[in-house]
Amino acid sequence: MTSTLLVIQIILAIAIIITVLLQKSSSIGLGAYSGSNESMFGAKGPASFLAKATFVLAILFVINTLAMGYLYNQDKNQSVADTISTSTAVPVTTTTDTNKSTKK
User: Fold this and answer.
1) Looking at the 3D structure of the chain, how many domains does it have?
2) Is 66 domain-assigned?
3) What is the structure's pLDDT at 9?
4) Residues 6-26: pLDDT tens digits?
5) Residue 67: inside a domain, yes or no?
6) Which of 53, 7, 61 is nearest to 34 (CA)?
């Protein structure tokens, strides 16, 4: 299930990149290559359609991200900190006080 969501996440990321690049900005960008058939998208052309598509894709991206986070946390029953070994590689030596000063 998580691998399916990961593939969907990658597809959504690529789709968001494409829709953002196709939008018209102050410079022409890739929006010039979207075609001239504006009747398909309405009176405003593809600008409104691409803005709505970007919004929908972004919402789906966030929902998919939350679902992946939830499912990954359900798979893990313990923390990474629980697997850390507390033993040290440095040998511990006990010191005995041999410098006892004796007063005569």
Assistant:
1) 1
2) yes
3) 93
4) 999 999 999 999 998 888 765
5) yes
6) 53
Residue with tokens 């929006």: 31
Q: Which residues contact 51 (CB under 8 A, 6 or more apart)?
A: 23
d(CA 6, CA 58): 15
pLDDT computed for residue 56 by the predictor: 93
Cβ pair 1, 71 in contact under 8 A: yes
Give the containing element (helix H, strand E) for 15: helix 2-22
Residue 6 lies in a domain: yes
| Residue at token pair 């022409």 | 28
Q: Which structural domain range is residue 53 located in?
A: 1-22+47-76
Maximum Cα interatomic distance, the chain, rounded to a whole number of Å: 111
- Count CB atoms within 10 A of the CB of residue 15: 16
Is residue 87 in a domain? no
Query: Between residues 38 and 104, which one has the greater pLDDT?
Result: 104
